[in-house]
Amino acid sequence: WTAEGGLVQLGTLGGRSSVAVGVNDHGHIVGWSTTANNRRHAFVWTAASGMIDLQSPSDARAGDAFGINNVGQIIGQVGTNPVLWTPTGDMIFPQIAGQATLTAINDLGQVVGRRILGGLDVRAFLWTPAGGVVDLGSLAGSATSAIDINDAGQVVGNSFVAFARPNPYHHAFLWTAAAGMTDLGTLGGVGGSSA
Asked: Is 47 within 8 Å of 59 (Cβ atoms)?
Protein backbone atom coordinates (compact mmCIF):
# COMPACT_ATOMS: atom_id res chain seq x y z
CA TRP A 1 0.00 0.00 0.00
CA THR A 2 1.26 3.49 -0.81
CA ALA A 3 -0.18 6.90 0.03
CA GLU A 4 0.00 7.85 -3.64
CA GLY A 5 -1.45 4.72 -5.21
CA GLY A 6 -3.28 2.88 -2.45
CA LEU A 7 -3.25 -0.91 -2.55
CA VAL A 8 -0.70 -2.44 -4.94
CA GLN A 9 -1.04 -6.07 -6.02
CA LEU A 10 2.42 -7.64 -6.12
CA GLY A 11 1.32 -10.81 -7.89
CA THR A 12 2.97 -14.21 -7.45
CA LEU A 13 5.73 -16.31 -9.00
CA GLY A 14 3.12 -18.24 -10.96
CA GLY A 15 1.38 -19.90 -8.02
CA ARG A 16 -1.65 -18.96 -5.96
CA SER A 17 -0.12 -17.30 -2.89
CA SER A 18 2.43 -14.69 -1.91
CA VAL A 19 3.34 -12.98 1.36
CA ALA A 20 5.33 -9.75 1.74
CA VAL A 21 7.56 -9.64 4.82
CA GLY A 22 10.04 -6.75 4.48
CA VAL A 23 10.47 -3.42 2.67
CA ASN A 24 13.32 -0.92 2.42
CA ASP A 25 13.30 2.86 1.98
CA HIS A 26 13.28 2.49 -1.83
CA GLY A 27 10.03 0.51 -1.79
CA HIS A 28 11.73 -2.79 -2.65
CA ILE A 29 9.75 -5.62 -1.06
CA VAL A 30 10.76 -9.16 -0.10
CA GLY A 31 8.83 -12.22 0.99
CA TRP A 32 7.80 -15.58 -0.38
CA SER A 33 5.49 -16.83 -3.12
CA THR A 34 4.38 -20.14 -4.51
CA THR A 35 5.54 -20.98 -8.02
CA ALA A 36 3.64 -22.57 -10.91
CA ASN A 37 4.78 -26.03 -9.74
CA ASN A 38 3.62 -25.25 -6.18
CA ARG A 39 7.04 -24.61 -4.67
CA ARG A 40 7.62 -21.87 -2.12
CA HIS A 41 10.35 -19.47 -3.22
CA ALA A 42 11.83 -16.24 -1.86
CA PHE A 43 11.23 -13.11 -3.97
CA VAL A 44 12.13 -9.45 -4.30
CA TRP A 45 9.69 -7.00 -5.88
CA THR A 46 10.35 -3.57 -7.33
CA ALA A 47 8.01 -1.22 -9.16
CA ALA A 48 10.33 -1.33 -12.19
CA SER A 49 10.90 -5.10 -12.38
CA GLY A 50 7.92 -6.65 -10.63
CA MET A 51 8.37 -9.90 -8.70
CA ILE A 52 11.72 -11.65 -9.15
CA ASP A 53 12.39 -15.22 -8.01
CA LEU A 54 15.52 -15.28 -5.83
CA GLN A 55 15.93 -19.02 -6.35
CA SER A 56 16.52 -21.00 -9.52
CA PRO A 57 13.28 -22.25 -11.12
CA SER A 58 14.37 -25.87 -10.54
CA ASP A 59 15.10 -25.32 -6.82
CA ALA A 60 12.74 -27.60 -4.90
CA ARG A 61 13.75 -26.23 -1.50
CA ALA A 62 11.33 -23.96 0.35
CA GLY A 63 12.55 -20.38 0.49
CA ASP A 64 11.73 -17.23 2.44
CA ALA A 65 13.11 -13.69 2.35
CA PHE A 66 12.80 -11.90 5.70
CA GLY A 67 14.40 -8.50 5.22
CA ILE A 68 16.11 -6.12 2.80
CA ASN A 69 18.38 -3.16 3.50
CA ASN A 70 18.76 0.04 1.49
CA VAL A 71 21.82 -1.35 -0.29
CA GLY A 72 19.73 -4.22 -1.69
CA GLN A 73 21.13 -7.04 0.46
CA ILE A 74 18.44 -9.56 1.38
CA ILE A 75 18.34 -12.09 4.22
CA GLY A 76 16.28 -15.24 4.35
CA GLN A 77 16.23 -18.99 4.42
CA VAL A 78 16.51 -21.65 1.71
CA GLY A 79 15.68 -25.09 2.98
CA THR A 80 17.27 -25.22 6.43
CA ASN A 81 20.08 -22.83 5.52
CA PRO A 82 20.25 -19.11 6.34
CA VAL A 83 21.14 -17.11 3.23
CA LEU A 84 22.23 -13.61 2.27
CA TRP A 85 21.47 -12.47 -1.29
CA THR A 86 23.75 -9.77 -2.69
CA PRO A 87 22.36 -6.91 -4.83
CA THR A 88 23.58 -8.84 -7.91
CA GLY A 89 21.60 -11.93 -6.90
CA ASP A 90 24.48 -14.07 -5.64
CA MET A 91 23.73 -16.29 -2.64
CA ILE A 92 26.01 -16.33 0.41
CA PHE A 93 25.46 -19.04 3.00
CA PRO A 94 26.84 -17.76 6.35
CA GLN A 95 28.75 -20.36 8.34
CA ILE A 96 26.83 -20.29 11.63
CA ALA A 97 26.93 -23.20 14.08
CA GLY A 98 23.56 -24.59 15.09
CA GLN A 99 20.17 -24.14 13.48
CA ALA A 100 20.26 -20.44 12.61
CA THR A 101 17.55 -17.97 11.59
CA LEU A 102 18.42 -14.49 10.32
CA THR A 103 16.02 -11.79 11.50
CA ALA A 104 17.37 -8.39 10.39
CA ILE A 105 20.09 -6.66 8.37
CA ASN A 106 21.29 -3.06 8.50
CA ASP A 107 22.72 -0.93 5.71
CA LEU A 108 26.27 -1.93 6.69
CA GLY A 109 25.48 -5.58 6.01
CA GLN A 110 25.50 -6.54 9.69
CA VAL A 111 23.05 -9.39 10.29
CA VAL A 112 21.38 -10.54 13.51
CA GLY A 113 19.34 -13.57 14.42
CA ARG A 114 19.10 -16.56 16.70
CA ARG A 115 20.59 -20.04 16.62
CA ILE A 116 19.57 -23.20 18.38
CA LEU A 117 22.60 -25.00 19.80
CA GLY A 118 20.57 -27.76 21.45
CA GLY A 119 17.54 -28.09 23.69
CA LEU A 120 16.70 -24.75 25.29
CA ASP A 121 20.08 -23.26 24.38
CA VAL A 122 18.97 -20.56 21.92
CA ARG A 123 21.49 -17.76 21.38
CA ALA A 124 21.21 -14.28 19.87
CA PHE A 125 24.05 -13.46 17.48
CA LEU A 126 25.53 -10.80 15.23
CA TRP A 127 27.15 -11.92 11.94
CA THR A 128 29.31 -10.13 9.41
CA PRO A 129 31.23 -11.59 6.44
CA ALA A 130 34.50 -10.23 7.86
CA GLY A 131 34.01 -11.01 11.53
CA GLY A 132 31.81 -14.10 11.48
CA VAL A 133 29.55 -14.85 14.45
CA VAL A 134 29.49 -12.82 17.67
CA ASP A 135 27.45 -14.34 20.51
CA LEU A 136 25.48 -11.54 22.20
CA GLY A 137 25.19 -13.26 25.58
CA SER A 138 22.08 -13.44 27.76
CA LEU A 139 20.30 -11.88 30.74
CA ALA A 140 21.00 -14.89 32.99
CA GLY A 141 18.55 -17.05 31.06
CA SER A 142 19.03 -19.92 28.64
CA ALA A 143 17.44 -18.42 25.54
CA THR A 144 18.02 -15.14 23.69
CA SER A 145 16.86 -13.85 20.33
CA ALA A 146 18.05 -10.80 18.38
CA ILE A 147 15.18 -9.10 16.55
CA ASP A 148 16.57 -5.96 14.88
CA ILE A 149 19.74 -3.92 14.30
CA ASN A 150 20.23 -0.29 13.29
CA ASP A 151 23.06 1.34 11.33
CA ALA A 152 24.83 2.25 14.58
CA GLY A 153 25.16 -1.48 15.34
CA GLN A 154 22.69 -1.39 18.24
CA VAL A 155 20.79 -4.67 18.55
CA VAL A 156 17.44 -5.26 20.26
CA GLY A 157 15.81 -8.53 21.20
CA ASN A 158 14.66 -10.58 24.15
CA SER A 159 16.20 -12.95 26.64
CA PHE A 160 14.89 -15.31 29.28
CA VAL A 161 15.58 -14.05 32.80
CA ALA A 162 13.86 -16.94 34.57
CA PHE A 163 12.47 -20.24 33.37
CA ALA A 164 9.29 -20.94 35.33
CA ARG A 165 6.99 -23.52 33.79
CA PRO A 166 4.68 -23.10 32.04
CA ASN A 167 5.48 -19.41 31.44
CA PRO A 168 9.15 -18.47 31.28
CA TYR A 169 9.92 -14.80 31.90
CA HIS A 170 11.83 -12.82 29.32
CA HIS A 171 12.93 -9.19 29.13
CA ALA A 172 13.70 -6.91 26.22
CA PHE A 173 17.36 -6.06 25.77
CA LEU A 174 19.61 -3.55 24.03
CA TRP A 175 23.06 -4.75 22.96
CA THR A 176 26.00 -2.59 21.91
CA ALA A 177 29.61 -3.54 21.24
CA ALA A 178 30.75 -1.18 24.01
CA ALA A 179 28.29 -2.10 26.77
CA GLY A 180 27.15 -5.60 25.85
CA MET A 181 23.59 -6.63 26.75
CA THR A 182 21.46 -4.23 28.81
CA ASP A 183 18.18 -5.32 30.40
CA LEU A 184 15.43 -2.87 29.38
CA GLY A 185 13.14 -4.09 32.16
CA THR A 186 9.35 -4.09 32.05
CA LEU A 187 6.40 -1.81 32.72
CA GLY A 188 5.94 -3.38 36.14
CA GLY A 189 5.12 -6.90 34.99
CA VAL A 190 7.28 -9.98 35.03
CA GLY A 191 8.20 -10.07 31.35
CA GLY A 192 8.56 -8.03 28.22
CA SER A 193 9.90 -8.22 24.68
CA SER A 194 11.25 -5.93 21.96
CA ALA A 195 9.37 -7.89 19.31
From this structure: no
